[in-house]
């Protein structure tokens, strides 16, 4: 690859992102007893700020965030931020991930948009991760595309992996009793048409992933940088140590 190709912008990029920030973060207690999970710092920087910086560097113009648990703290934290343009939607009841995105659709537009979990922490690889991800999006074949990470490299080894992927990039959920090679990073591109199959009220985005998979329209792309899964205090401590140590792993990655 020519070095100039590492910094090129994609031919298309979503100009809007939905950042999911309404969750309680119970597994990260007691830290989340007094602050919402997106405001928990990783190496001194709140998780949500790291996400918004990724969006700004990529060129995403608008971000819609939902909030519920201690949502006023999140809104106050973001009130003076200049970029990207921020809209915070306070949810009176917990709508879960899918219901939260569905509720925000009037603010997200008719074009595909990013959906990012409020606790996803990643570092770019050789190229801007969101640019690289957007370059693999194909609206003719896809309704949803998930950014995936090799499960063997997941810090903490939670669960058994999430997806398998074929040679065309089409992905399938892990079968019961098996280990899947890829973990979902909590970063996706979603076409709003998939919400035609969505119910009213609270529901998980996983319901739409499964629907897209059944239609052969759920795809994945692999992240070539680092990702930290922040679920428990132990995960956070390991991530802080890795950030402080320059992201050097305890053992080499192969």
Q: N- to C-terminal separation?
A: 22 Å
- Rounded to an integer in angstroms, the radius of gyration calculated over CA atoms is 17 Å
Overall geometry comes to: globular
Helix and strand composition category:
alpha/beta
CATH architecture: Alpha-Beta Complex
Please describe the biggest sheet, giving its number of strands, its sense, and whether it closes into a barrel.
7 strands, mixed
Share of helical residues: 10-25%
Average pLDDT over all residues: 92
Query: What's the total count of β strands?
Result: 13
CATH superfamily: Spore Coat Polysaccharide Biosynthesis Protein SpsA, Chain A
The SSE string, one letter per element, is EEEHEHEHEEHEEEEHEEH
Q: Approximately what portion of the residues adopt beta-strand conformation?
A: 15-25%
- Report low-confidence residues grouped into runs of 5 or more: none
CATH fold naming: Spore Coat Polysaccharide Biosynthesis Protein SpsA, Chain A
Order of strands, widest sheet: 5-4-1-6-11-8-12
CATH class: Alpha Beta
Number of domains: 1
How large is the count of helical segments? 6
């Amino acid at each position: 690859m020519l070095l100039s190709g590492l910094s090129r912008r994609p031919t298309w990029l979503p100009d809007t992102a939905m950042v999911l920030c309404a969750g309680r973060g119970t597994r990260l207690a007691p830290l989340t007893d007094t602050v919402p999970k997106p405001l928990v710092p990783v190496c001194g920087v709140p998780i949500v700020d790291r996400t918004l910086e990724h969006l700004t560097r990529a060129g995403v113009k608008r971000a819609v965030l939902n909030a519920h648990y201690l949502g006023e703290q999140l809104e106050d934290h973001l009130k003076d931020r200049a970029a990207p343009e921020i809209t915070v939607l306070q949810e009176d009841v917990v709508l879960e991930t899918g219901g939260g995105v569905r509720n925000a659709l009037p603010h997200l537009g008719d074009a595909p948009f990013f959906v990012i979990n409020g606790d996803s922490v990643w570092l770019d690889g050789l190229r801007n991760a969101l640019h690289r991800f957007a370059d693999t999006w194909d609206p003719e074949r896809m309704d949803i595309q998930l950014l995936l990470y090799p499960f063997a490299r997941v810090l903490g080894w939670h669960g058994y992996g999430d997806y398998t992927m074929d040679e065309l990039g089409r992905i399938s959920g892990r079968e019961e009793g098996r280990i899947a090679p890829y973990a979902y990073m909590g970063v996706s591109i979603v076409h709003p048409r998939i919400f035609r199959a969505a119910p009213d009220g609270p529901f998980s985005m996983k319901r739409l992933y499964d629907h897209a998979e059944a239609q052969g329209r759920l795809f994945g792309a692999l992240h070539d940088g680092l990702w930290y899964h922040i679920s428990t205090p132990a995960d956070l401590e390991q991530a802080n140590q890795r950030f402080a140590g320059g992201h050097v792993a305890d053992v080499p990655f192969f």
